[in-house]
Amino acid sequence: MSPKVSVIVPNYNHARYLKARIDSILNQTFQDFELILLDDCSTDNSAELLNNCRNNPHVSHIELNEQNSGSAFRQWEKGIQLAQGKYIWIAESDDKAENRFLERAVEALEKHPEAQLCLTGSHLIDTCGNPLHSSEFDQWDEDGRIYEYSSLQYLRKKLLNQNTVYNASMVLFRRKNCLKDITPAYKKMRYCGDWLFWIEQARKGNVVEIHQKLNFFRKHPDNTTNQGTREGNSIPEMISIRKYFYQHVLPPQCCTDIVIDKALLYGHIKHLPISAERRKELLLSLKKELNINWLDYLIGKWIRSLLKHKKSADAQIL
User: Fold this and answer.
1) Residue 245 near residue 152, CB atoms below 8 Å
2) Which DSSP string do the residues of 186-240 spell out, in sequence order?
3) Whole-model pTM?
4) I want to staple 17 with a disulfide (CB 3.0 to 4.6 A). Which of 52, 94, 236, 289 is the partner?
5) Are 38 and 9 in contact (CB under 8 A)?
């Protein structure tokens, strides 16, 4: 009989975190899962640690690459292709989980059959496991309740302007057809491939959020996200995702969302702490790829201001 959940641990040079990661999986209150351990040709002693898990009954695969694939997202796909479970959990090798993560996430998806994704909140921790305090994520009250969004609602409100699915370890999603008819472009990206992957998953069904912090997301001072911010290196990928979003994801009736988003993207580049020469280069790329210029920025800002004013006025009337 196939397991209910396939847990995929894609690892690269995270030997120092592997024991805590794997223990937090094996100690889940929900135990109907297989464990797929992947290593992308680490240069530390990760392979040795993973091989020590071979006799664990939960472990179905240990795959050790002899050459680095160059992409975490290729490892995601490799794990998904090996998986047999109804649901997938990509448990990043440097993160941890509360022991009820799977119990609550599986229960949520079982109760919401139209949902493709289930998200929980995250505790932020540093490289040593110490708590970090940030208002950047999980901007909701931790009430433990489950909230369901339609596919289009989540795409428009949560995934158009930014990647609110900020950590793979906080997500459980359905395996069936999860790779079918999705763009392979995410596998070629260095900075934003996860954003594009979650966009494609959200297109396949509704999204449920559990407003409870059941994941531990480890923030490194020199992680890929921070690297992408420097000199705007992630901007070309962000432009590519916006182009895909405008052309293939949002229906015509969402034209206002697109106008506002174009202004937000232009404003983001305009205010990046980078050199004037690099900013000019990125704005020229924005003009070339999406035909967005200063006028689009002004129009989008004006429309956004009008909508905010109308919303405020309507609230006062109520």
Assistant:
1) no
2) GGG-SSSHHHHHHHHHHTTSEEEEEEEEEEEEEPPTT-HHHHHHGGGTTHHHHHH
3) 0.94
4) 94
5) yes
